[in-house]
Target: NurA domain-containing protein
Amino acid sequence: MGSTSRSHRPNEWAAKINHTQLITDPYIKEFVQNCRLPKAAFEINQDDISNQCELLADNIDNPIKYILSVDGGYTTVEVNKKFPSAQFAFFQFGAVLFNTADLKSLSAKPFIFPEDMQKLHNLQRFKLAIPIKNIVSKNEASLKDSIRKSIYDFFMRKQDSSSFMETLEWFVFQQYETQSRDVYELASNPNLNPGSGRVDLSIRDMKSDFTFDTPDGKIYLTDVFRLHEVVDEEQGAGEILGYLTRLIEQLILVHFIRFIYEYQSSLLNEFLYIIDGPLSFSGQTANMNGLMRSLCNHLRRHKNLFLVGIEKSGSFVEHAREICSRFEGEPVLSKGNYLLLSNDYIYKYIIPGDSSTMHYGSSSYYGGKAIFHSNDGQVLVLTVPVTDKDVNRNPKTDDYLNLQPVLLNIQKLKCDMYDDAIVPVALVNKLVSLANHPSKVLLEKFSKQSMK
Model:
């Protein structure tokens, strides 16, 4: 492995001929020859499509008047040339409220101009910075504790009249139910090593600052995310960045859902919530999946909820484009149709695996996946809340919460700026994303000057 010089000496570059040792090795050649790619369109059994394929009805009542879209991103920076291992991560999240009438006019435009941005309402940005390697924050003794405190402080900040921490309490202890939860079982003690054993967090023992006093030290309510389990004091916390991004994006949605639920619940019938990415919690945060499904099922029974996650890349998107492309005259999945993805289908055509012993997303997803080939040619991979984790064994439209109204609205929001894009996601991404140039460069300079 090459390395970058920190002095007048040249960089140590990797040799440019050693690839021949791999190419000519018989073992490597045989291994590569025996590997296989995902199935192409002509290899797909049409019965596997038709069994789970349905046509989007054209006579659906559309109650949606507002759309709330959430997205986020992060970038990492080095803060000192002498210590390149010392790194920060900067996050920015955005929530934008749209009126569907404005979006209909924007969706017809191939480009969105600055004056179009005036049609956006109530743009809110949420910022977070955490140390991720070889840095500790004030008064903290370790990287793990620095990260725990940084996340806790972010959730404690007031966002208008409330904080994300108040929403987290409402979410974790299920205070939307008639009988709320008294105790949450935390899988490991953040003040001890992973595998230290369960800690019961009782809401009666929680202090006004959302902390719990234990013999081993203070526990924050935000420790329920279990991110402390994957922080390595030497190797850093790079592993948590994707998990944390997905987590906060979805808890921002929960924050707005809670606000509407408590103050004007009838508006739940008029709001469509859109998030960039699948409806899932990954890695150590997967324990939030069950809590989110409980909230969605409560709203299904007592109020209403229109929520969708839209994927822009990955193996599911690649497969969707394959089956929606023209093959011998017609695509495998015709326009105007959507395909509910079963466990068998996923492991047969998209993800390598054995569907008889594996259950896709059972520990991380609270939504079911579908591929939608819209009437105007959009190819979209969506996730919509489902009743329970076993739905994808034999998925049906009724198991997906408001699937057809969601598809109807998504179809109306086509954006020609990018492939298979929709206006709300494209706009909120533009408003909060952090580019390598100039954002990363300027954040590096900001960090270096601030830490002098």
Remarks:
- The chain is about 30% helix and 20% strand.
- The radius of gyration is 24 Å.
- The first helix runs from residue 19 to 23.
